[in-house]
C-alpha cells in the first residue's frame, strides 16, 4: 500500500518517436501512487494535431467504447488500434499501420477511481511519422543462374535511405531452398555492426569460405569461395533501418528485400549422393490454375505430377519410388522438385522439366494446353564411389517377442562412416521410409522419437560392420528395413549407399495357442477342482484372465494375472488358488477351485491378452471346459419295516429310526404319509429346521391326536392318540438328509423311506377254541360246540342259559393245518368269518350256526 502522503504519477514512453508510414507504433504508459495498487486502472489516449495545438482528439479508452472520435472507430473495430493492459497499472497503446496523419502529440491519461486528486494523471509524448525511403538492390547478378560445383560466387547489396535522423543499417543475405517456406540466413551484419553466420554456414565462415565485405557505408558484397550443391535456391539481400529512441533502445523502423536471384549449382555427383532438380512456373493467377509438370531424362519422362497432384512414375523407376530413392513433390504454387538419392552411375545425363496448363471442362475432365520445356541441365558424370553395402541373410519369419537382428557391412571404405536404419511398413501406409536409429562418425546414437520407448540399438563391432537390434518385435514391426551407410571422405565430400531387406514378423495369433484342460471333470462336493491352461507362445508380456460362463452365456471374471506380476481378483479370493509354471516355450497356468460346490459348476475359460509397444491385443479365448460337482454318496439308512397291531382307543407310536447317516452334522426333513384303500394322504411334514406342518387332508379334529417327536439316534416318533379303526393302514416315513456345502448353504440328498403296517381292531372275547387234534376247550361251561363229522367243515356253537350279557357281535376264526412228513404239522392258512350281531333276552336259548 502507498502511504497517505504519496502522489499519483503517470508516465509515458519518452519521445520524439520516429516511425515509418505503414509500420507499427507502440507506446507504453503506466501510473503509480494510487492507494489501491492492485485495482485495474483505466486509461484514455488523446492526440493533439501539431497544426491545431489546442485541439485534442479522443482516440481510444480502455473503458468507454463511446470515447473515440468517429474517424478512429473503423480502425479500432478492425483491431488496427488497441489498448492492452500489461498489468493493473500499465498499458501499451498500438497502431498496427501508421498513417501520415497519425503524427502528433499523444497524451495518456489515467482515470481517477478515487474521490480526490493528488498528483499527475496524464503524460504526453511526440510521434513523428516519416516516409519509408529505404531501398535495396543487388548487383553483380550472374548472367546465367547456373554454376558448377566449386565455382566462386560474388553478389553485391546496396542500400539507400533519405532518413535525416541518425540510423543504423543492417544487412543480411538469405537463401530460400526449394520446398522450404522460410528462407535461411547465409550471413548477417546486425545493427551493432557484428557479423553472424547463418545456421549450417558456421564452418565455412570460420574457414573464410563465406565472407561479407564492406565496400562503403551502404554497400556490402557476399563472397562464396566454392559453391556446394546445398547452395542451390533463391538468394536475396535484405536491408534494415534502425533508429535509437530517447530511452536508448533501438527500434527497427523499416525493412526491404532485394529481388531474389535464382541459383542452380551443377555438379559432378558421386555415387550415393543426392540429385536435386527444381522446376519453377511463371504465369498469371497461378493459385487459380492447374498445371502438370514432368521431369525428363534424356528426353524420357521419369515422373509426372498431374493437375490434381497425383504422381505417376515410369515403370523402370517404380521400385526406386517405393523405396524412397525417387521423390517428386510440389513445394508451392509454382515450385516443383525432383529428388534422387542415392544417385547411381546410370543416372548421369541431361535432365529437364516440362510444364503445361490444364483446363478443366464442364464435364470435369482436363484439357491439356501447350507444353514448355526448361533448359536442360547436364549431369556430366557420376563418379563411382567404390562404397558398397550388403545385408547378411537373416532368419525369416521372426516370431513376436523375439529380437530382430540385422547386419549391414560396407566395402570400399575410404573415409569416416555413419549409418542410419529406416523402415517402411508393409502394407505401406506411406511411400517414405521412417528413420529408426542412427549412429554418427563419433559413435553417438540417436533414436527417432517414435522409438524412444523401444529397446533398439545399433553397434559397430568392426570398422565396416553395423549391427541393428530391435527387441520384443510385434507383427506391426513387419516391413522393409533399410541400412544407409554414409561416408565422409577426407576432402569433406559425402556419399551414401543403401541396402534393404523385407522382414516379416508372424502375427501373434498364429503363434499363441491356448488350451484348457480339467484334471477331473466330475468332482464330489467339497473337493478341489484343478484347471490347467497351457499357453504356447514366444516370450512376450501377456495378461491371462480366468472366467466362468454364467447361465446366460456371459463371462464372469474370476481373476486377472498381469504381465508385471500383479493380480486382480473379481471372484472370492479365498475360494481359489492360482499358480504359474514356466515351461520353456509354454506357460502352464493353474486355477484351483477350493472345496467346490454346485455354485462352482459350469464352464470355465482362460483368455490371453498381449500388450506390446502400447498396443493391447486380445487373442482368441481357450476352449470351454465343463466342471460338474456331484453330491457325496448317500449313506442314509432307516430301520426295517414292521407291523403294529393296536386296539381301538389306545395310543399308536411308530418309530422311524436313522441307522446310518452321511454326516454327523446332517439335518433331516421328515414326511409321514398314510396309504389306505381310499387313497394316500400326507399326515405331517417336518422340515430340516424342525418346523412341522400338517397335510391338507388332515382334519382339524384329528390334528390334536397326532404329533411327532425327534429323539436321539436320531429317531422320529409319530404318535396317534386314541386310535380309531380309520387310522389303520400303511404308514410311510420319508427322510431327506441335508448337508452344508462349503458356502454354508444346505443341499439335500435323495430321500429314504420305511413302511409300517398298522392294524387297529376292536376288543375281542374268545369263547371257545377247537384244536386240529379235535381237542375242544371252552372258556365258559355254558358254551357247547358241536362238530359234525358228516359235515367236517361245519361247527355249531350253543350258549346255554343265555342272558343279556351274551349279547354282542360274534365271529369265528378257522385255521387250516397241513401235515408234512418232514416238518410235521404246519399252519397253512387262517380265515375269519363275518360278524353276527346277536341280541339275547332274559329267557331265550339261542343256537348260532357257524360256517
TrEMBL record:
InterPro entries: Ig-like_dom, Ig-like_dom_sf, Ig-like_fold, Ig_sub, Ig_V-set, IgSF_V-set/TM_domain
Keywords: Disulfide bond, Immunoglobulin domain, Membrane, Repeat, Signal, Transmembrane, Transmembrane helix
Coiled coil: none
Designated name of the protein: Ig-like domain-containing protein
Cellular localization per UniProt: Membrane
Ig-like domain sequence ranges: 132-254, 262-355, 384-504, 509-609, 632-755
Membrane topology type: Single-pass type I membrane protein
Gene Ontology CC: membrane
Main location: membrane
Pfam families: V-set
Xref: SMART domains: IG (SM00409), IGv (SM00406)
Amino acid at each position: 500500500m502507498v502511504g497517505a502522503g504519496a502522489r499519483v504519477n503517470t508516465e509515458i514512453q519518452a519521445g520524439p518517436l520516429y516511425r515509418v508510414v505503414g509500420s507499427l507504433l507502440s507506446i507504453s504508459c503506466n501510473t503509480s501512487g494510487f492507494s489501491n495498487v492492485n485495482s485495474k486502472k483505466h486509461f484514455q489516449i488523446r492526440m493533439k494535431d501539431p497544426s491545431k495545438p489546442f485541439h485534442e482528439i479522443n482516440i481510444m479508452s480502455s473503458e468507454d467504447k463511446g470515447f473515440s472520435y468517429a474517424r478512429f472507430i473503423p480502425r479500432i473495430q478492425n483491431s488496427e488500434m488497441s489498448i492492452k493492459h500489461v498489468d493493473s497499472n500499465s498499458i501499451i497503446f498500438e497502431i498496427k499501420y501508421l498513417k501520415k496523419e497519425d503524427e502528433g502529440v499523444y497524451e495518456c491519461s489515467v482515470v481517477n477511481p478515487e474521490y480526490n486528486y493528488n498528483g499527475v494523471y496524464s503524460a504526453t509524448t511526440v510521434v513523428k511519422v516519416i516516409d519509408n525511403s529505404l531501398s535495396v538492390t543487388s548487383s553483380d547478378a550472374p548472367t546465367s543462374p547456373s554454376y558448377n560445383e566449386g565455382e566462386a560466387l560474388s553478389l553485391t547489396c546496396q542500400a539507400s535511405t533519405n532518413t535525416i535522423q541518425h540510423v543504423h543499417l543492417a544487412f543480411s543475405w538469405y537463401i530460400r531452398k526449394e520446398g522450404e517456406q522460410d528462407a535461411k540466413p547465409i550471413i548477417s551484419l546486425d545493427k551493432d555492426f557484428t557479423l553472424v553466420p547463418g545456421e549450417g554456414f558456421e564452418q565455412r565462415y570460420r574457414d573464410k569460405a563465406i565472407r561479407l565485405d564492406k565496400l562503403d557505408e551502404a554497400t556490402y558484397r557476399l563472397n562464396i569461395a566454392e559453391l556446394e550443391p546445398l547452395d542451390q535456391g533463391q538468394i536475396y539481400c535484405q536491408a534494415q533501418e534502425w533508429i535509437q529512441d530517447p530511452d536508448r533502445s533501438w527500434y527497427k523502423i523499416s525493412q526491404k528485400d532485394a529481388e531474389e536471384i535464382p541459383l542452380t549449382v551443377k555438379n559432378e555427383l558421386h555415387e550415393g549422393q543426392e540429385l536435386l532438380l527444381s522446376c519453377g512456373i511463371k504465369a498469371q493467377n497461378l493459385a487459380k490454375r492447374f498445371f502438370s509438370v514432368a521431369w525428363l531424362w534424356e528426353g524420357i519422362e521419369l515422373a509426372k505430377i498431374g493437375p490434381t497432384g497425383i504422381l505417376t512414375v515410369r515403370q523402370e523407376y517404380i521400385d526406386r519410388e517405393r523405396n524412397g530413392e525417387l521423390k517428386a513433390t510440389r513445394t508451392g504454387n509454382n515450385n516443383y522438385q525432383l529428388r534422387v538419392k542415392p544417385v547411381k552411375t546410370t543416372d548421369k545425363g541431361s535432365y529437364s522439366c516440362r510444364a503445361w496448363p490444364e483446363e478443366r471442362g464442364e464435364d470435369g475432365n482436363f484439357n491439356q494446353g501447350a507444353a514448355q520445356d526448361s533448359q536442360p541441365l547436364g549431369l556430366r558424370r557420376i563418379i563411382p564411389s567404390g562404397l558398397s553395402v550388403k545385408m547378411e541373410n537373416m532368419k525369416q519369419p521372426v516370431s513376436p517377442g523375439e529380437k530382430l537382428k540385422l547386419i549391414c557391412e560396407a566395402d570400399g571404405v575410404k573415409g569416416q562412416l555413419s549409418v542410419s536404419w529406416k523402415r517402411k511398413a508393409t502394407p505401406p501406409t506411406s511411400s517414405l521410409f521412417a528413420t529408426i536409429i542412427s549412429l554418427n562418425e563419433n559413435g553417438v546414437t540417436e533414436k527417432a522419437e517414435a522409438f524412444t520407448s523401444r529397446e533398439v540399438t545399433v553397434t559397430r563391432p568392426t570398422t565396416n560392420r553395423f549391427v541393428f537390434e530391435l527387441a520384443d518385435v510385434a507383427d506391426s514391426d513387419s516391413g522393409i528395413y533399410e541400412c544407409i551407410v554414409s561416408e565422409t571422405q577426407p576432402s569433406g565430400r559425402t556419399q551414401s549407399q543403401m541396402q534393404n531387406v523385407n522382414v516379416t514378423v508372424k502375427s501373434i495369433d498364429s503363434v499363441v495357442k491356448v488350451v484348457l484342460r480339467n484334471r477331473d471333470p466330475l468332482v464330489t462336493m467339497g473337493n478341489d477342482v484343478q484347471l490347467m491352461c497351457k499357453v504356447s507362445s514366444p516370450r512376450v508380456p501377456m495378461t491371462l484372465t480366468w472366467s466362468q460362463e454364467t447361465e446366460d452365456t456371459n463371462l464372469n471374471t474370476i481373476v486377472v494375472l498381469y504381465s508385471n506380476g500383479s493380480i486382480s481378483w473379481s471372484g472370492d479370493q479365498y475360494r481359489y488358488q492360482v499358480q504359474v509354471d514356466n515351461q520353456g516355450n509354454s506357460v502352464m497356468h493353474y486355477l484351483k477351485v477350493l472345496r467346490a460346490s454346485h455354485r462352482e459348476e459350469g464352464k470355465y475359460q482362460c483368455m490371453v491378452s498381449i500388450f506390446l509397444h502400447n498396443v493391447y491385443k486380445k487373442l482368441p479365448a481357450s476352449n470351454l471346459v465343463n466342471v460338474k460337482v456331484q453330491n457325496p454318496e448317500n449313506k442314509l439308512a432307516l430301520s426295517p419295516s414292521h407291523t403294529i397291531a393296536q386296539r381301538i382307543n389306545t395310543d399308536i407310536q411308530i418309530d422311524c429310526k436313522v441307522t446310518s447317516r452321511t454326516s454327523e452334522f446332517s439335518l433331516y426333513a421328515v414326511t409321514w404319509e398314510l396309504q389306505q384303500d381310499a387313497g394316500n394322504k400326507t399326515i405331517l411334514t417336518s422340515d430340516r429346521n424342525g418346523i412341522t406342518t400338517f397335510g391338507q387332508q388332515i382334519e382339524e379334529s384329528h390334528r390334536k391326536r397326532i404329533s411327532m417327536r425327534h429323539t436321539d439316534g436320531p429317531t422320529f416318533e409319530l404318535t396317534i392318540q386314541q386310535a380309531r379303526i380309520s387310522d389303520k393302514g400303511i404308514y410311510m416315513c420319508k427322510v431327506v438328509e441335508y448337508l452344508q456345502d462349503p458356502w454354508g448353504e444346505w443341499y439335500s440328498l435323495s430321500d429314504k423311506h420305511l413302511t409300517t403296517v398298522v392294524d387297529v381292531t376292536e376288543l375281542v372275547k374268545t369263547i371257545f377254541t377247537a384244536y386240529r387234534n379235535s381237542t375242544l376247550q371252552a372258556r365258559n361251561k355254558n358254551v357247547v360246540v358241536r362238530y359234525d363229522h358228516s359235515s367236517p367243515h361245519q361247527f355249531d356253537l350253543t350258549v346255554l342259559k343265555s342272558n343279556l350279557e351274551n349279547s354282542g357281535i360274534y365271529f369265528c376264526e378257522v385255521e387250516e393245518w397241513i401235515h408234512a412228513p418232514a416238518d410235521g404239522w404246519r399252519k397253512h392258512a387262517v380265515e375269519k368269518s363275518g360278524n353276527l350281531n346277536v341280541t339275547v333276552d332274559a329267557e331265550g336259548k339261542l343256537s348260532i350256526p357257524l360256517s
